[in-house]
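FYI - complex with aspartic acid, inputs then prediction.
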Amino acid sequence: MPIVCKFGGSSLANSEQFHKVKDIIESDDNRRYIIPSAPGKAKNGDQKVTDLLILLYNMAVHKLSSAEVMNMIESRYREILNGIGIEFDLKTELDEILSYIASGKVSKSYVLSRGEYLNGKILSAYLGYDFVDAKDVICFDENGTWDEESSYKALAKMQEEHERAVIPGFYGSTPSGKIVTFSRGGSDLSGAIVARGVNAELYENWTDVSGLLAVDPSVIPHPKKIKNISYQELRELSYSGAKVMHDEAMFPVIEKNIPVVIRNTNAKDDAGSYIMADVPEDAEGEDITGIACRKGFDVINIEKFRMNRDLAFHRKVLSVLEANDIYLEHMPSSIDSISLVIASKYLKNKTDQLIAELQTFTNADRITMDHNIALITIVGRNMKNRIGTSAHVFSALAAANVNIRMIIQGASEMNIIVGVLEEEAEKSIEAIYNASF
Ligand code: ASP
């Protein structure tokens, strides 16, 4: 069974990185399907090619000259081509992108996808692998929703026709040929889809760190590395702000139980972190696997005496949110009050209107708001079977003099989420980390 390898932007940022990637691929004959990102940052101060493409597109839309930006993009690929020494008609490829942009016929997604497209073409020539355009195997419907069934069908066919291939990450297309991209970082998802589609024995996600860290290293220097983690824990951590993998990248591999490993292109012999369905029991293992944090939340507190006697109360609250296109993050409650935890970006200038509507519709006694809330998510599969994890967390926060604004724990007992003021987030993480590891 093949191994599917996704290489992130920093792994393919320049020709030196391309050499490392080739070396890695050639050291295991099973590494047969390769998913590249666009060139990312080779060093501090570099721009990601995807960011340059966004700028290129925006300049074109505003009828500004995009020549300078195109030169920057070109020089990134030129350096790669010169350094790996292969023949490649870059000029024609770039002219094609420019003429499409000039014709006004292409979408932003098309322009953005060219970073991966070009990197894929160059990498396939360098490796001697077939090039398979992602537009032919990653399928979307005409609304831009990823089409699982068609993608897997196309990938199965691709596998019959190509023993080894490079398939660019990040994009696919609709039946009418329109290019669609995933959200940023979406090559992780492309890699997972290909892994599932070709029934891979392993999905290797090559990046610039030797695996997952238990906490953000900018908060805790040199944190503990995570050796093994379950799919669900990873999903919780990445959704909760850990900069690991695209938060939806686990869905395709979960279904087939395909293990994922995160490895370092710049330290290829490091073991990395394994992500799987069932992590082997480790009686000595910590209660907590990792800690993540997201800032930028507001909390709307609705109080109404005997709220629990109003059968329709929650429905009314949720209807108001739905009618205003506002996503709800959490809804902790007590007997006569509930709190709506909402990302501030959804509220923007809707707050007054929203509160007025909630007031009218629910006939609440009082509605108040808290701003600048950070949600700290403490994730750990072992919590469920052990006593004292939350005691640890809360006493650490008390000792650090942090006022906890909110506590959320679902019945799955996979995580504990605490809401604190944003300015106390780092102090809180430090306290929880030091008490847990
Ligand atoms: N190149 C895209 C981005 O920068 C997709 C990816 O790297 O996964 O977001």
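The mean pLDDT is 94. Residues 108-127 form the longest helix (20 residues).
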